[in-house]
Amino acid sequence: MQIIEIFWPAFTLAILLVYIHAIFGIEIIRRGVIFTDLAIGQIAAIGMALSITFLDGSYQTLLVLTFAIFAALAIAWASKNLKNVEAFIGLLYALGISSIMIILANSAEGIEIFSKLSAADILFTSKNELYTSVMFYIPISLVMFFFYPKTKGFLREITFFIMLALTVTSSVQSAGVLVVFALLIAPAYMGIVQKKLHPLIVAWISGVIAIITALIGSYHFDLPTGYSIVFVMVALSIVFVVIKERKV
């Protein structure tokens, strides 16, 4: 009972992370802009690095949101005006990671902070952190299910990328950039390659199985939780996709 009382916020957040990111992941894969989330997450993490390094953690959400929206708007614009969008997105990612390393260059805890930005430990998520994530994710999912399908043209692009930016604002702070990337792509990829069920259903089920397995494994074997999530999520996805799409 005590273990459940301690870890239920982390497990609930894990399921919530899979729920919201699968919605965006399927759309990202269908659009063919796989590294969009990674670029937005990396640019958003600049806000975290600035907050941690220079402001003792103050204004973190505001800074992360500002940088995430900037990246989202830049990609939305590029999607309509540039031919080689993936190259532009790759440059944004490189800009983000290099900016973070420059910001952290003179910090004694630079490597530790960078590791946290890449893959954070959600195992000891507090109730307040969980409730904050719920306040972000539920309205966003409602927009994606009920408003987004009715939009067209540039409004559709802006809606998608702004909602993604808001999602990344919360998830990068709680889980880290690499975890966000794994959550967005791995479950959605598994959902798309199979044809029997709705992609979202498969993405949700496979994602929940992977992330719960990773949380339990990281606790029992004293492993870094964030990187455990990335490993299990990606490994399961690779095995699933190879089995489903192998040539007979």
Descriptive report:
There is one protein chain. The protein has one domain: Orthogonal Bundle (ABC transporter involved in vitamin B12 uptake, BtuC), CATH 1.10.3470.10. With 248 residues, the chain is mainly α. It has helices at 2-31, 36-54, 60-81, 85-104, 110-118, 127-147, 153-174, 177-193, 199-220, 225-245. The model has no long low-confidence stretch (mean pLDDT 87). Helix 2 packs parallel to helix 4. It is globular and about 50 Å long.
Instruction: Give the count of structural domains.
Output: 1
Instruction: Give the low-pLDDT segments.
Output: none
Fraction of residues in H or I helices: over 70%
Mean pLDDT: 87
Shape: globular
Number of separate strands: 0
Layout: helices, strands, pairs:
Elements: H1 2-31, H2 36-54, H3 60-81, H4 85-104, H5 110-118, H6 127-147, H7 153-174, H8 177-193, H9 199-220, H10 225-245
Helix pairs in contact: 1-6, 1-7, 1-8, 1-9, 2-3, 2-4, 2-7, 2-8, 3-4, 3-7, 6-7, 8-9, 8-10, 9-10
Question: What's this, in brief?
Answer:
With 248 residues, the protein is mainly alpha-helical. The chain has helices spanning 2-31, 36-54, 60-81, 85-104, 110-118, 127-147, 153-174, 177-193, 199-220, 225-245.
Which tags fit this structure?
82% helix; 248 residues; ABC transporter involved in vitamin B12 uptake, BtuC
